[in-house]
Each structure stands twice: as C-alpha cells, then as structure tokens.
Write a structure and sequence with these properties.
This protein is an alpha+beta fold. The protein contains 4 helices and 3 strands. A 3-stranded antiparallel beta sheet has the order 1-2-3. About 10% of the residues are buried.
C-alpha cells in the first residue's frame, strides 16, 4: 500500500493527472476509469512494473504488461504472494 503510493507520488510529481471515466458503472455500481500522467496510463505503469495485477476477470487490457513484469521479475514478482482475490476467498 504505502510503498506503491510512494511510487505513484514520485511518478506523478507535480504533473496534472487526467482521468477518463467509463460511461457505465460496474456490477457493484462503482464508477470506473483510467488515469494518465503525461499521456501514460498509471494502471499500465503499475502492472508493467509489477506493483499491480491484471484483473482478468473484468478486463484483459493489462495481460501483456503483467506478463512483462513476471518475465522480468519486477515488483511483486520478486516474492511469494497470494493474489488478492484468492486471499479474499479464504476469509
């Protein structure tokens, strides 16, 4: 959490963030969107560097970025972990 927040703070710096909001809400009535800094997707940045996962249950958009992080042993891929969706099932 805090570690990834610090990565985002450094990535964003003093730049303006632009977010594109999806026209429809998700199954849980949540607003969805994607945010960019200097034209780069922050979601893609996090997944490609191994600090977030491609949640393929809802989208295949970041699969190649996750494969890249995994193949290059980046971020979370340097350690053992349980996917968040698997952890929640155990509770």
């Amino acid at each position: 959490g805090k570690f990834v927040k610090d990565i985002l703070v450094k990535k964003i710096g003093n730049n303006i963030i632009n977010c594109e909001i999806e026209p429809e809400k998700d199954f849980f009535d949540r607003t969805l969107g994607e945010c960019f800094v200097n034209g780069e997707s922050l979601s893609k940045f996090l997944v490609r560097n191994g600090w977030a996962f491609a949640f393929t249950r809802y989208s295949k958009k970041y699969v190649k970025d996750e494969e890249y992080a995994k193949e290059n042993n980046l971020g979370l891929w340097t350690m053992e972990f349980i996917y968040p969706w698997d952890f929640r099932k155990k509770k």
